[in-house]
Each structure stands twice: as C-alpha cells, then as structure tokens.
Amino acid sequence: MPVDVIPTPLPDCLDITRAFARSWPVRLGDTDDQDRLRLDAVARYLQDIGFDHLDAVADGDIHQAWIVRRTVIDVYEPIVFGDRVQLRRWADALSNRWCDMRIQLKGERSGHIEAAAFLIHIDPVAGRPARMTDTFMAPMLASTTEHRLRWKAALTELDDPDVETVPFPLRVTDVDRLGHVNNAVYWEALEETLAAHPDTHELPYRAIIEHVGPVMARDKVVLRTSVRPTGLRMQMDVDGSARALASVTALPARAKS
C-alpha cells in the first residue's frame, strides 16, 4: 500500500469547534456480543451524519447524490453499547466534484474512532460526477487548505496464488433505493471476515474499503481473503471481477487529546 496515499494519523481539524456536530446513543443493533460498536454501524453513522450535515448547509438540498469511493476507519478504542457517541464532521480536502470528509467519533465515557470518506458528487439524472455549487463549497473551502484533491488508490487487487474464498449471499434489505448494495453492507462483509480471522487485528487498527464497481441486487458475491504478515486483505468479487478491496492493518498508538 502506498504510504503517502492515506496519512497516519488522519489529519486533525483546523478548528474542531467549527466542525459539524451531532450525537446519539449507541443502541443494541449497532453492537456485537462484546458490546463493541461494529464497523458496519460506524459506516451507517458516517452516512447519517453526512445527510444531517446536508440539511444544515446552504444548497444541501441540491447535493443529495453521492458515491463513496473509499472509507477509512481508524479504531483506537472501541465505542460501546449504552454510551453516547459524539460525532464531528468537516472537509479535509476537496476539488469541485469530490471531497474527503473527516469524521471523529468519541464516546462520552470512552471510545475513540477517526474516519475519512472520499465522496464523489453525482448528477442524479446523468449519473456522472457533477460540480458542486460555490455556495455549497464555501464552508468546506474554509475548513482546509487542500483545494485540489485528486483521487489516488491505496489498495490493489489480490494477486495471491492461494486465497480463502467464501460466498456472501445478499439479502433484500442490503439494497438501497438506487438498486445498489448499501455502503454499510461492505463493512458487514469485512466484519464476517474478521470474525473468521480473530487473530489478524488488535487495537489500534486501520480498516479501509475502496470501491472498484457497484454491487447490485441479485449479484452473486464472493469474498476472497488473504492473511499476510502486514495484515488482512479482503476482496469482494462478482463474476470473477473485483468490486471492492479491503484491508485491516495495525496502527501506531495515537496521542490522547
């Protein structure tokens, strides 16, 4: 993985007091049998605060269509059931058609997760990247000095000769209003993979999912997994073609703030 694609640690906000903020309780359906907030629940939280953020900014109503190109979730300390999670969201970098949004999640009692999502703004009719309005971009431009964001992949397709292969059947509830499998479902697949390889990750760790192509309703999904000395790799395939790439690797400890 190119070390310069995703910085470690993820960049802090220039002024965290100006970040968009929300909070809500961590409920039973978001957690596992160890009371840990699951990765797929974190992915849903990122979607939820994203739509709340759109409701709070000028021109948010005409910027409702987005594609997630990559999500990074850095887990330093698990957030747990019964706590209340505080989320803060801001633009870390952008161009006029896409942006890298940073999200910080902290439990009121304990727990710390840092996340980043590379989002592409889409014209809902044409289905292709579309320019954001100047009004919409204004607060984003103010939160970062990186105004010429370019896409660069962090992961490559698996080329291991021996990989573990298992089917990942889709459910009706996995599909959103556009007929695509929801972003959080990819993280459910990664949770399944991690449960099958519990010795491959310890705190703190970084999980990444990059989307290569869409997974649609009725697709036959296969998960391909490789355990390496540097961490775990997973690939979601449909008809022998990669649709998503994932990795889980160790992180250095982050200084407490």
Question: What is the CA-atom radius of gyration, in angstroms?
Answer: 18 Å
Q: N-to-C terminal Cα separation, in Å?
A: 28 Å
Which range does the strand content fall in?
25-35%
List the total number of helices.
Answer: 3
Q: Note the run of SSEs as H and E.
A: EHEEEEHEHEEEE
Report the oligomer: single chain
Q: Tell me about the biggest sheet?
A: 10 strands, antiparallel
Structural class: alpha+beta
Number of E-type strands: 10
Specify the overall morphology: globular
Mean pLDDT: 95
Q: Are there runs of 5+ residues with pLDDT below 50, and where?
A: none
Helicity range of the residues?
Answer: 10-25%
Strand ordering within the main sheet: 1-3-4-5-2-7-10-9-8-6
Nutshell version of this structure?
By secondary structure, this protein is of the alpha+beta class. The chain is 16% helix and 33% strand. It has helices at 39-56, 134-142, 183-196, and strands at 20-25, 66-77, 84-94, 98-107, 112-121, 164-167, 205-211, 221-228, 231-238, 241-250.
Explain this structure.
The chain contains 3 helices and 10 strands. By secondary structure, it is α+β, with helices and mostly antiparallel strands. The longest helix is centred in the N-terminal third of the chain and has 18 residues, at 39-56. It is globular.
Secondary structure layout:
Layout: E1 20-25, H1 39-56, E2 66-77, E3 84-94, E4 98-107, E5 112-121, H2 134-142, E6 164-167, H3 183-196, E7 205-211, E8 221-228, E9 231-238, E10 241-250
Antiparallel strand pairs: 1-3, 2-5, 2-7, 3-4, 4-5, 6-8, 7-10, 8-9, 9-10
Helix pairs in contact: 1-3
